[in-house]
Amino acid sequence: xxxPVPELGSFNYVPETKEDLDWADLVTLDFSKYGTPExxxxxxxELVEAVRKHGFFYVKNFNISQERVNRQFSIGKQxxxxxLEEKLKYVPEGLDNGAFNGYVPAGRRxxxxxSGLRDRVEIYNIPKFNGDFKHEHPAIIQQNxxxxxxxxxxxxxxVLDPLHVLLAIALELPEDYFTNIHKYDVKSEDHLxxxxxSKYTPEENKKxxxxxxxxxxxxxxxxxxxRQPVAALQIKNNTTGEWKWVKxxxxxxxxxxxxxxxxxxAGYVKSTIHRVVxxxxxxxxxxxxxxxxxxxxxxxxxxATVQSPVLxxxxxxxxxxxxxxxPVPTMEEWTFxxxxxxxxxxxxxxxxxxxxxxxxxxxQEKVYA
Length: 369
Description:
The chain has eleven helices and 17 strands. It has helices spanning about 35-55, 65-80, 85, 140, 145-170, 200-205, 260-265, 310-315, 320-325, 330-340, 350-355, and strands spanning about 30, 55-60, 100-105, 110, 115-120, 120-125, 190-195, 210-215, 220-225, 235, 245, 250-255, 275, 290-295, 345-350, 360, 365. The strands form four sheets. Strands 1-2-12-9-14-7-6-3 form an eight-stranded mixed sheet. The protein is globular. The termini are far apart.
């Protein structure tokens, strides 16, 4: 039952693009099937296809109303309307060393050396409400905190827990295997994110090759992305290497599998490469507001390959750390090594020292065009 909430006003979505884009053909998991053993098995099979072939997929009928989602977009919109000097009060101490909860301002990356154009991506991350993290926020966030907490917890119970059960079924593990290392009340670096991509002019877009965020993978278990109509997300096909647009689908979440699950399954689950590009011409004039949730295993989980009958039969028995003989990191070690790399300030796009840096023994980063 939703908590009593203050008035937020409405959130108005822009019209979808009318351009004929090369959309990715992604699997949709219908969680209305989840209530029976047969439905779970069917969904588990579909999930395997999704995480092996594409890494991205849709989820529908996940028991969170569009009204609740719209309110989160409204909170995000109003947060980005407050003055920059107010937002800067919430920059995390230690941002350059990988801290990420709070406000991350735009302009930390140089996208075009000749013109000096920088990124225009702003982030506000809200950690778990389990007692492990401080919650000191601007008024628009603070006054809506009970609703935000309920929303974040609902994502665990209605989306993430079922996904973890389905993955366990697919790998012939006990159904609670992955939920046991993704409990909400245990410390992990999960967070809800309001994210704003401010627009560039057509001339500026040409200078940066229409590429807002280079191809990358996410570091956790799953990323949940709520539908918004500005087309800009593209994924790299695991087989052909082609980039395909991800279409906003009504009433769905877009989900992608991430690095931690790839490590835990020795690459059986694909951590998919994705990027953010300039929207098509009929949407190029608007900013893009994102609502996301990042799921991660408990901080103390070691990212070693799980003992799954499926993985053993198919030869997925060692991840990159295990193959190289280097220490297998915990999730906490992996998170902050990658976050520190991601938060490096004043990097110029194309700098090979940054883009192929070794962030841990046995792991060299990659950036994709």
